[in-house]
Amino acid sequence: MGAKLCGAVLALIFATVVISSSNAVSDPVVYVIRIEGTITEGTAMDVLEGLAEAENANAEAVLIELDTPGGLVSSTLKITERIMNTKVPVITYVTPRGAIAASAGSFVLVSGDIAAMTPGTTTGAAMPVSIGMSGREPADEKTVKFFAEHMASIANSTGKNATQAKLFVTENAVLNANDALKFGIIDMIANTEQELMTELDGRIVEIGGENITLNTRYASLHYKEQTSRSYLLKVLSNPQVAVILLIVGLYGLIFGFMSPGTYVPEMIGAICLILSLYGMGLFSVNAFGVLLIIIAVILFIAEALTPTYGILTTGAIACLIIGALILPREPLLFDPRWFYGFAVTILGIGVASAVFFFFAIGAVLRVRRRRPKVGGEELIGQVTNALTDITEEGGMVKLRGELWNARTMNAERIERGAKVEVVAREGLTLIVRKKKD
User: Is 278 exposed, middle or buried (0-12, 13-18, 19+ CB in 10 A)?
Assistant: First the structure.
């Protein structure tokens, strides 16, 4: 009887462990990917990697949190395409309070199977723009029409209001969270991630023709950490950073060639130039903008070599600012505030460049034009201590680790240990005088 009871207890314990293990394995997990700041190629890599990880881990869903002013067109299209072809449900969520999903961010928001926003957030303003000689302006009509239809197509496929989504592009429409819910751009409003998970629980999402019921109420959140590679790519493919690296690279090479021997400016310049070229390879570049930047550098050098009292520098600054502003060629999906910051950055570069070439390059040229001292001339003016008493008859000093014969002039007598200054040289004898305090 006791043996049977023990067996029953063991069987119960074993069943409990098995059931607990089964529940632990089946606990739902939601992958969280955050898109913050400018959307670049690095952002696209981070999102694509996160979606692939979620699929491989059989995640319950993917939560993409947005707070972005927009970004590059090519990177945005990669993200939306991958979201719409992911085998797990994707929830896009504008958070925290005060966050925006502007321009490119609105494309990503609409592409989610379920879209949500936190109160106090904003989305819209997705008209593609370009930067030309006259400044920031809407892209050509053909480009605007294409992106408007593409936005409508995305909205249709995810069950959003295609007509309203299209207005984001054609009219630069902007909606807050309440209006976005009212006009069918988002599916819900949630204050926190936990509230969102509770609201999502039990919702049915169609993925690849199959209906999936979300089980998110007690899901654990797995936050995707940004890799070093994607972070570096995100920084380099930012148009602002690429422009700065290009200019610093050119200046480094120029400064190094004009003052050879240290190799440090050339090394820094080459590294910056390579990084800038790689970054600019991730978005379309206006060749005319690059040409204007090169002309600006040439004018700066000409000003340093043949001073024109600021005439060439003024032209160089104008070429530099215009060239940098029109450098990105592709239609961009950015909030207007990004362009303001971009313009301020370029103006700062122009001012810094003027200061650099007025002072740094001018100083280098003055050093190069200075008459070099050779032989005994370089010892003249040096100060040391007398090793012995020094008279017109002779004495000894130690200079630069070497012993020298020394003598004075005009019957001057210098005591041992006193400071002396070299005033001339006769063969291997230095002519010195007592150094006055």
Answer: middle
Structure tokens at 253: 């090479």
CA-closest candidate to residue 121, choices 100, 144, 93, 91: 100
Catalytic residue among 22, 26, 134, 142: 142
Q: What's the token pair of residue 426? A: 């006769």
Residue written as token pair 């020094």 = 390
Largest CA distance in the chain: 128
**Can 111 be counted among the known catalytic residues?**
no
Q: Is 103 a catalytic residue?
A: yes
pTM value > 0.85: no
Tens digit of each residue's pLDDT (9 = 90 or more) over 307-316: 666 677 778 8
CB neighbourhood size of 70 (10 A)? 28
| Higher-confidence position of 240 and 30 | 30
In this structure, what token pair is assigned to residue 124? Answer: 């819209």
pLDDT tens sequence across 169-226:
999 899 999 999 999 999 999 999 999 999 999 899 888 888 889 998 888 999 888 7
**What is the secondary structure of 381-411 as a DSSP string?**
T-EEEBSS-BBTTB-EEEETTEEEEEE-STT
Q: Calculate the alpha carbon distances from 432 to 228, 405, 415, 417, 422 in Å.
A: 63, 10, 12, 14, 4
- Which of 75, 78, 103, 106 is an active site residue? 103
Residues 261 and 259: their CA atoms lie apart, in Å, by 7
pLDDT one-digit tens code per residue, 86-121: 999 999 999 999 999 998 999 999 999 999 999 999
Task: Give the DSSP per-residue string, 193-253.
Answer: HHHHHHHHTT-EEEETTEEEE---TTPEEEEPPPPHHHHHHHHHTSHHHHHHHHHHHHHHH
